[in-house]
Amino acid sequence: xxxxxxxxxxxxxxxxxxxxxxxxxxxxxxxxxxxxxxxxxxxxxxxxxxxxxxxxxxxxxxxxxxxxxxxxxxxxxxxxxxxxxxxxxxxxxxxxxxxxxxxxxxxxxxxxxxxxxxxxxxxxxxxxxxxxxx
Length: 134
What we know:
This protein is mainly α. The protein has one domain (2-109). The protein contains four helices and two strands. The protein has helices spanning 2-13, 22-45, 50-74, 81-101; strands spanning 104-105, 108-109. The protein has a two-stranded antiparallel sheet. A hairpin with a 2-residue loop joins strand 1 (104-105) and strand 2 (108-109). Helix 1 (2-13) runs antiparallel to helix 2, helix 2 (22-45) packs across helix 4 (81-101) and helix 3 (50-74) runs antiparallel to helix 4 (81-101). The chain starts with a helix and ends in a 25-residue tail after the last strand.
């Protein structure tokens, strides 16, 4: 997720992307953010189901893209399917990234144990037979 945010910030701040309009880069970044939120919500609701987490990512970005274009249309602007596509693409990238980089077990994601203790630096006191005089 952090990598995607860095890429989005880079695309937004860099003027070296002459092939991509600034508006599309912003839509992509917004889609990545909305996709991450959708994936988090879907993951919590379905107890980390892989299919629904990725679907939530795409659905969240689609909802954000459609809402933004509806607001633009309501304010007298033009509807742009390219903007919706860029927003959804951001959500797809987040969903695929979650799928690729998450630990999986069957159809569910598995929580990583952050508090795992390393046993290689511990001393087994049963092996040390401490006797008086040593």
